[in-house]
Each structure stands twice: as structure tokens, then as C-alpha cells.
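Lab meeting minutes (informal)
Scribe: AK
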Amino acid sequence: MTSSSAKRPTDGFVLAITFQYYRDLPAAMKFYEDVLGLSVAIDQGWSKIYNIDGQAHVGLVDEARGMQNWAAAKTSQLCLRVPDVDAWHAWAASCDVQGLTDPHDNAELGIRAFVMNDPEGYQIEVQTAQPGH
């Protein structure tokens, strides 16, 4: 890092968006809307930004137009903390999602969680904090 008179701004961030790249954007949109119940916050045509909650967002990008390329190996996981992980698991099971695991307790992390995959293989962890965590 070089010495400079510039200082890091301290006025915070407006949004947090994690972008994921898809070959079939409409199928991904259907999953995030119908299974997860998210709504489009910003529609940029080939990029759809969904509000998760508060300032947290996930962006779905048509890989033919985005800054990154689609890749078969996914190296990120979207984690959603919910009040009732078992209710979410029952819902996900009824939607016949890919890669659905049984809910499990992780005492070390203080969570109960399961994972599932979206239509193009991005893993989504759904978790609930256990009492005292």
C-alpha cells in the first residue's frame, strides 16, 4: 500500500450485493422468487438484484453479459439465517430442490442448518441459531 493523503470514507455502505453468474437466468430467477420468496429490488435487464433483508442483496447475472464467466465449480455459498430452520427445510423439500440435506445441529457453531443447491449449483445454507448463540 502506498502512502497517500486519501483517507478511507467512514460514511458506511448503502447496499451489500453478492453477484452470481448463470447460464439460464430465468430458471435462477424462478428459484429465488418462488422457493426463497425474494423480490427484485433492482432490475438491470440481464442482472437482477434481489433484496434478502435489510441491506443484504444477491445479484443474478446472465453470464453472457456479466463481468465474470459462469463456472461449473462454485466457490461461494449463500447463507440465510432464519427463525425456524425446520419449517424452511419442510418448504424446500416440498419444492423438490437439488442437493437438499437433512437438518443437523452443529454444537461448535451453535446452529441448526441444512443446505440445498439452486438450479445451477450454488449452495445455499439455511440456519437457525441455537439458544444461547
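Next up, CB showed the second protein from the same session:
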Amino acid sequence: MSLTTNFLLLAVGLTALILGGHFLVRFTIQLSRLWGVKPLFLSVVILGMGTSAPEWFVTSVASFQESSGMALGNVIGSNIANILLILGLSGLFCRHPADRQVIRFDLPVFLLAIVILWFCSLNGILTRLESGFFLILFTAYIALLFKQRKPENTSESQDLKSLPTPLQKGKKSYLFYLGGLALGFCGLFVGSILTIDSAAELGKIFGLSEKFIGLFVLSVGTSLPELAVSFQAIFKKQEEMALGNIVGSNIFNSLFILGSAGLIRPVVVSSGFLQTDYPFLIAVSLLLFVSLLLFKSLPKILAGSFLILYFSYLFLSARLFF
């Protein structure tokens, strides 16, 4: 396809992402009101896993095609892009107030996951046994998360009651809101496919390497659903959902996506990932955790620093690839 066609497909894909994000946030809020659970819970479980569907699709295909560099690069690059690029951009408009559950449970789980992932990668390969262990950890995380789905105190219950009230609470209402979620996911899926395909083609046109496409073109492209959902959550004044979506997505990426990809075919880990990309991901994850622990939010100056860090990482890595 020509350069113009790829740019047009990119524009259509981005539009579908925006609309899909709008529907997802809107109907997730309504369902949290119907079910009497915290919006944060649904943002971590439904939005976090749902917006990671493109990463799962791309990583699985790469694993089937024996492209370990692209599979692993997509997951690590997506996690880095979610923290530095997505939280950095959205953090310029919102401080991302952190719920106690995110600080005490979700972020520590993510940090533990990437440290275990790095440790298992030291021998240069992620085996099927280790991949199965990641899936067990993910199942345990989801089980523990379900125990925390209800509001913990009266103030949280009042916040839940302040959400927009659904029109009705019958069977038709549930089907309507679940249908809205499905429509939102379809928008994200179609938008992601169009965006990823056109971006990958543009990368090939400009002569980028496979690892570069995996780490940056595909990882940024597959992180676009998180960006769309985060900005929609901020627009609807549900800032905690934006942070929950990012943390949930990163946990899903690290445990479920790499776990399932490793079961398909053991993932070969190059020395470049061990020496540069893994340590950088751990460092920025710790920086986010410390910020939320100290300030209970993400200061705007740190959000701006995240963007500088990301583009510096992009620039330095690009120089290594050429």
C-alpha cells in the first residue's frame, strides 16, 4: 500500500479508538453502579484486560511465527509506553490520584511480576514451565482482586452512589450495558488493527528493524486503547479508573500475555533486553510506585519527566538499532 493509504488507515484507526474508549468508560461506570462494585475494580479487570487484547493478539501471532524479538519487545515496550507515554500525556491533564488498593496491592504485584520475569529471563529463554507459572500467578491475582471488589468504607459507598444512575436495573438494562461494552471493545479492536497494520507498514517503508517495530511501533500502537480509555476516564472525572486501567493492563501484559505466548513457543530473550530494556522497565515502575506512595498521585512535573524519559529512551534505542 502507498504512503497516503497507510496514513488514511491510521486516521480511521485512531477515530475508532477514540469512539471505542468513550463507550467503554461510559458503560463501565454504569455497570459499576448496577453491580455495586468500585469503578476501579472494573477498570483493572475489564478495561485493563480488554485494552491489552491488541498486545495479546500481536504477541501470540509473533510467537507462532517464531519472532521472539517482536513478541517480547511488544510486551516490554507496551509496559514502558503505558507508564511513560500514556501516564505522562494524561498526567499533564490529571494528577492521577491513587486508590489505596493500587498502592498496596496492584502496583506491588506488577513490580513482583516484572522482577520474576527478569529473573527467569537471565538464562536467555522463557520456558513453557515458567510461562505456565506466570499464568498461575495471574489466576491468583484475579482471584485476590475479586475479594476487593466491594467499597471498603462509607465514603467509597457514597462516591459509588454519586455516579450517574442507570435507567433501569432489569435484565434488559444489563444486556444494554454489556452490549455497550462489547461495542466499545469492537471499536478498540478494529482501531488497533488498522493503527498497528498501518504503523507497521510505515515502519517498514522507513526501513526500521524488527526489534524497533516491536519495541516502539507495535508497542505504542497496541497501547493506544489505554490512551483512549485514560483520556475518556479523565473527561468523565473518573481519574482513578485511568490509573487502574494502566496498572491492570501492565499486569495482564507481563503475566498472561507472555505466559500464553511462552506456552505456544518458548521465548528467546536477547542480551539487549536483559541489559537495557528490563532494567529500564523496572526503574520507571519503581519511580511510579514511589511517586504514588509519597504523593498519593502523579505530580504534573513528574508526568512531564515521564515524557522526556520516554522520548530519550526512544532516541537512544533508535541509535542502537541503526
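CB comment: Residues 171-205 form the longest helix (35 residues).
No objections, moving on.
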